[in-house]
Write a structure and sequence with these properties.
Shape: globular
Radius of gyration: 18 Å
Number of helices: 7
Helix content: 55-70%
Length: 186
C-alpha cells in the first residue's frame, strides 16, 4: 500500500508539473491552482499518449519523456508559488486533513484483488499490447476487441511500466478517483 501511495504521489507531481508547463506556455497563469494544473497536465498527457501510441509502444521511454517534460513545469510551479502571496496555508492544512482519510481508503481498496470479470478478459491484455506494440492499422479485422481505443487504457499502459509492471489495474483508476476526491473536497 505504501508503494502504491508513493507511486501515486510521483505520478501526481509529474502530471502537475506537466500541467504547469502547459499553462505557462499557453499563458493561463491567472488563477492557476495545483488541481487545475493537475487536470491540465492530465489532458496534455492523454494527448501525448494518443499521439505516441500511433507510432511507438507506451513503455519506459515515454515515462522518462513525460518526467523530463514535467521538470520545467515543476520549477515554474515553485517560482510561481514563492512569488504568489494569495496562497492560504490555513485552507491547505484543512484540505489536507479533510482529504487524508478518503484518499487513504481509496489507496487501501486499490490494493485488493480485482474482481471485475472483464479486467483479465481484455483490459489487461489491451494494456500489455499497448506496452509492447504501437497501433497496427487493420488489426480490428482479426478480432473486434483488438480494434477499440481507449484513452484510459493508454493511461493504464503508462502506469504499467517499471517499477510496478503488471499492476495497472491497481494504479490508474484509484489515481483518478483520488484526484476526483481532491477536486470535490476542495
Amino acid at each position: 500500500m505504501i508503494e502504491l501511495a508513493q507511486y501515486c504521489a510521483i505520478l501526481f507531481i509529474t502530471i502537475t508539473g506537466l500541467g504547469f508547463g502547459v499553462c505557462f506556455l499557453l499563458n493561463h497563469t491567472g488563477k492557476l491552482s495545483v488541481l487545475r494544473a493537475q487536470w491540465s497536465g492530465f489532458i496534455a498527457l492523454i494527448v501525448l499518449l494518443e499521439f505516441w501510441s500511433i507510432f511507438l509502444p507506451v513503455n519506459n521511454r515515454l515515462g522518462w519523456l513525460v518526467l523530463g517534460l514535467s521538470l520545467p513545469g515543476l520549477f515554474l510551479m515553485a517560482r510561481h508559488f514563492l512569488r504568489s502571496q494569495s496562497t492560504s496555508w490555513r485552507s491547505l492544512v484543512v484540505f489536507t486533513l479533510a482529504a487524508f482519510l478518503p484518499i487513504l481508503f481509496a489507496v487501501y481498496t486499490s490494493c485488493k484483488l480485482v474482481t471485475w470479470y472483464d479486467t483479465p478478459l481484455y483490459h489487461l491484455n489491451a494494456v500489455r499490447w499497448i506496452n509492447e506494440f504501437a497501433a497496427i492499422p487493420g488489426l480490428a479485422n482479426f478480432h473486434e476487441r483488438l480494434g477499440f481505443n481507449s484513452s484510459f487504457l493508454l493511461f493504464g499502459a503508462l502506469t504499467n511500466v517499471d517499477p510496478l509492471a503488471g499492476k495497472a489495474a491497481h494504479i490508474a483508476l484509484p489515481y483518478l478517483l483520488c484526484m476526483t476526491l481532491c477536486e470535490v473536497i476542495w
